[in-house]
Amino acid sequence: MKILLLEDDYTYSESIKDSLEEMGYSVDAFDDGLKALDALFEKRYHLALLDIRVPHIDGYEILKEIRKAKLDLPIIFITSLTDINNLSLGYELGCNDYLRKPFSLKELQYRVSQTLNSYHLHTTLGVIALSNGFSYNVDDHSLWYDTLQVPLSNYEKKLLFLLVKNRGNFISTDLIHDYVWEGKEVGDNDIRMLIKKLRDKTDKDFIITAKGIGYKIEK
């Protein structure tokens, strides 16, 4: 499989490239947004790792162009701490995951493998069938039970979107915190309460918990 990497920090770029090549991937690395965008339209890639803040054109604009052209590949954003408040924008534009600097190479390998393995289930489908008779409408982010819409709060909608987008894979509490609350100070109990509220509106087995790992819904 072929991966495009956009990272203007030389040390990060070399470490990421070496780590992914050790896993057997072919990696084309770029430090300039325009050059990376040109390559995306010239070659076939299975995944793009995009730093957000790079010269000439940033990661958000590249993602917009990718989705506008309907290029069929998943996107993982590489973000710094100052980008955390923009996570909502990244997901709304269609990114599949993110890596927050500093990250370990083990986390990099895990997220790349997880994203590639799950991408064949696109969230561009109009309606996604979920477990226990529920379904998710991608267009308006609504949850349905048969023909009845399930009322959801804004936080519940964001949590459900994250779980559906990554269905079949466990999502860490850190990622839930960063995406749903956009970096605001909340505790683990707030996350557990939000999970409970969504379970109360669906089914006790709708969201699966793995202690110390996170939460998921099945494919």
CATH topology of the largest domain: Rossmann fold
Order of helices and strands: EHEHEHEHEHEEEEHHHEE
Mean pLDDT: 86
What is the CATH C-level name of the largest domain? Alpha Beta
Structural class: alpha/beta
Number of domains: 2
C-alpha geometry: globular
Number of helices: 8
Main β-sheet: number of strands, strand sense, barrel status?
5 strands, parallel
Please state how the strands of the largest beta sheet are arranged side by side: 2-1-3-4-5
CATH homologous superfamily annotation of the largest domain: Response regulator
Strand content: 15-25%
CATH-scheme architecture of the largest domain: 3-Layer(aba) Sandwich
Unreliable runs: 120-124
Q: What portion of residues is helical? A: 40-55%
Q: How widely separated are the two ends?
A: 24 Å
Count the beta strands: 11
Radius of gyration equals: 18 Å
Describe the structure in your own words.
The chain folds into two domains: 2-118, Rossmann fold (3-Layer(aba) Sandwich); 127-216, Arc Repressor Mutant, subunit A (Orthogonal Bundle), CATH 1.10.10.10. 40% of the residues lie in helices and 20% in strands. It has helices at residues 10-22, 33-42, 59-68, 87-93, 105-118, 154-165, 173-180, 188-201; strands at residues 2-6, 26-30, 47-51, 75-79, 97-100, 127-129, 134-137, 142-145, 148-150, 208-210, 214-216. It has a five-stranded parallel β-sheet with strand order 2-1-3-4-5, sandwiched between helices. A four-stranded antiparallel β-sheet has the order 6-7-8-9, with no helix packed on it. It has a two-stranded antiparallel ribbon with strand order 10-11. Strand 3, helix 3 and strand 4 form a beta-alpha-beta unit. The longest helix is centred in the middle third of the chain and has 14 residues, at 105-118. The radius of gyration is 18 Å and the shape is globular.
